[in-house]
Amino acid sequence: MIRRSYLFVPGNRPERFEKAWQSGADAVILDLEDAVQSAHKDLARQAVAAWLEPERPVYVRINGTGTPWFERDLEVAGMPGVLGVVLPKAEQPEQVAQVAGLLVGEARVLPLLETALGVWNARALAQVPRVERLAFGSVDFQLDTGITGDQEELLYARSRLVLASRVASILPPVDSVTMALDDMTRLREDVARGRRLGFGGKLCIHPRQVETINRGFAPTEAERAWARRVLEAAEATNAPGRSWHKQMRLNERMNTWLTTLRTRRVYQVRRLKCRKGFAR
């Protein structure tokens, strides 16, 4: 299953947790890091721990390694109801492995790559056990590198995450937040660019961004119809992907194994909408 939208909610605002859960986001991230001031970290952790329930699984963004709050945040990471942990400023595989070792059940880690070293080590981070997918933090990455633009200036960094994810055989990465909350045109453009580059989802900081992200990363009706035709033709030939493509002439894209992979991914996204707890 491929989640498209990841909605951040400040961990010190428990009155917003349920609203976020009902927002239609594929995933909710209760944030103990950037959204919470230092003086409120402990109260936020307590609020998140009190709200967690297995019936409403969420991600939790903890504070980074080396911070005074990291060890205490790790206690929350292993609690029931934690679908996964977002690790900010992820740079070294050992950091990710430390968090992964405390998770229970099917919980996973989403390393958030926000520094030059993190992006440089993308492949190693993607290969750590229990890593679900990588996420890109463009704002802090720009601060770390001195890059002032956020379009083609970040093409190399974004592409590095996409390639590392593919080499590690994990889900496509999650693109960074669009900070212009009232600019839906900009959001649609960012979503379309991310999808073209190979991203599979996007972080967001307001519920009004969720629908545009979900729609932008979902297969279109034309893509779903095409996928159905491909699978029907594949079943009719009763042959593996690399042999049946020669017998079909639906369109020129059917001459590689990528056809099958894209088709499966279309149906993964569609099934996501029917899974309780991930799409409301």
Fold blueprint:
Elements: E1 5-10, H1 17-21, E2 27-31, H2 41-51, E3 58-61, H3 70-77, E4 82-87, H4 93-100, E5 108-113, H5 116-120, H6 122-126, E6 135-136, H7 138-145, H8 155-167, E7 174-175, H9 184-197, E8 201-204, H10 210-217, H11 221-237, H12 241-244, H13 258-272
Parallel strand pairs: 1-2, 1-8, 2-3, 3-4, 4-5, 5-6, 7-8
Helix pairs in contact: 9-10, 11-13
Description:
This protein is of the alpha/beta class. The protein has two domains: 5-217, Alpha-Beta Barrel (TIM Barrel); 221-272. It is 43% helix and 12% strand. Strands 6-5-4-3-2-1-8-7 form an eight-stranded parallel beta sheet. Helix 9 runs parallel beside helix 10 and helix 11 (221-237) crosses helix 13 (258-272). It is globular, with a radius of gyration of 19 Å. The two termini are 15 Å apart. The model is unreliable at 275-280 (pLDDT under 50).
Q: Tell me the number of structural domains.
A: 2
Termini separation comes to: 15 Å
Looking at how many chains there are and whether they match, the oligomeric state comes to single chain
Number of strands: 8
- Per DSSP, the total helix count is 13
Name the shape in a single word.
globular
Which percent range fits the helix content? 40-55%
Q: Specify the biggest β-sheet.
A: 8 strands, parallel
Q: What's the CATH class label of the largest domain?
A: Alpha Beta
Which structural class matches the secondary elements?
alpha/beta
Mean pLDDT, rounded to whole units? 88
Order of helices and strands: EHEHEHEHEHHEHHEHEHHHH
Percent range for β-strand residues: 5-15%
The CATH superfamily of the largest domain is known as Phosphoenolpyruvate-binding domains
CATH topology of the largest domain: TIM Barrel
Unreliable runs, pLDDT <50, ≥5 residues?
275-280
CATH architecture assignment of the largest domain:
Alpha-Beta Barrel
- Compute the gyration radius: what is it? 19 Å
The strand order across the widest sheet is 6-5-4-3-2-1-8-7
